Amino acid sequence: MAKKRNIIVGQSGGPTAVINSSLAGVYKTAKERGFHKVYGMLHGIEGFLDEMYVDLSTQIHSDMDIELLKRTPSAFLGSCRYKLPDIHENPDIYEKIFGILDKLEIEAFIYIGGNDSMDTIKKLSDYAIVKGHSQKFLGVPKTIDNDLALTDHTPGFGSAAKYIATSTKEVIRDAMGLSYKRNMITIMEIMGRNAGWLTGATALAKTEECCGPDLIYLPEVPFDIEKFLKKCTDLMKKKPSIVVAVSEGIKTPDGTYVCQMGGGSDYVDAFGHKQLAGTAAYLAAYLAEKTGNKTRAVELSTLQRSASHMASRVDINEAFMVGGAAVKAADEGDTGKMVVIDRVSDDPYMSAAGIYDVHKIANNEKLVPRNWVTRDGSYVTQDFINYVEPLIQGDYQPFMVNGLPQHLVLKR
Q: What gap in Å lies between CA 104 and CA 285, rounded to an integer?
């Protein structure tokens, strides 16, 4: 009897509005290329170690389900933040993983995630090669932070940027309506630990009928709080309402996170990442004390990555594309690689899937180029806007039931 050709896919890290479109791309392409079963690991590699997985054919029954999945936010299979130890630290974990893979007759392992997830692909593919295992390991990019190396951009970023730019316009309108006879300063806090791609996207709010944010601060440039105060004070002399966008990860020149200046959380995740929260709240309180003006802190938080009703069609389609490309690459013998998005043309915008060695991607961060930020570090340049604008184009309307969007939900 011929060996069954099975494939397994997992999701890891912070979800996005389009992570399930990549899952749909994996499933549909695997079926088209003749894989027998497509398994989904529940809660990523962490759940897989507990032998938690599901046959996706029990969840996806039609093309309509695939379309619904593409419109469903968060991680359909469940996510995790689990750091796979180095091989020499705990070889038993690797023996367990490959034991499960062999039991399920897995030919290809696909992992949808960001930087830390690509580290998992790197370690598993290295182990397989050293130990002579035949499984192929491919990474599918996913992160709203847009900080993965070698890819032009990451699935999830375009939709998050679209939501952030839209919300910025709405916050600006709201603040303008409340600034009669009393000045108002609004601080918007946007996700981004070390990379300011998302915060820079607030500049897209500058349109014919909207002035856009007045100041934008990215973590790539050290934050000087005294210069910040002066800029805000000068602006308040010219207009009654100002809106400032800040990355959650902005730091002072000595490396102190601004959110830590107000206390903040001591929580650190498995990858050593400190939880960042409270940057806008601290700056709003600081400005209220220093200027005497009314201030407001707006933290978009998880809304940035879960607003599937605001998904970009470009983003949805590219997420589906890279999921399918990973299956194709594995089927053709590639391993230890991550699928990337190559920008083929700006006008009209066109992209294609490429593939690169995951060793050159894992544990590397792509930051906003310094020349895409103004000299004084308080705004982004036109080059930044030109880069992001094509990624937010088009809509992908949800299926509405009783006035609300419908999602595909895992059935156990």
A: 56
Q: Considering the candidates 116, 119, 126, 145, report the single residue annotated as catalytic.
A: 145
Same domain, 187 and 268: yes
User: What CATH number is given to the structural domain containing 401?
Assistant: 3.40.50.450
The predicted pLDDT at position 58 comes to: 97
Map residue 175 onto helix, strand or coil.
helix
Residues 133-167 pLDDT 10s: 999 999 999 999 999 999 999 999 999 999 999 99
- What pLDDT is recorded for position 183? 87
Pure H helices in 178-301: 197-200, 225-236, 279-291
Catalytic residue flag (residue 116): no
Q: Per the domain annotation, does 392 fall within a domain?
A: no
pTM exceeds 0.85 for this model: yes
**Which among 52, 42, 120, 38 has a CA at the least distance from the CA of 87?**
120
Same domain, 162 and 301: yes
Task: Please list, in sequence order, all residues whose beta carbon lies within 8 angstroms of the beta carbon of residue 361, skipping any fewer than 6 positions away.
Answer: 115, 118, 139, 148, 149, 150, 151, 338
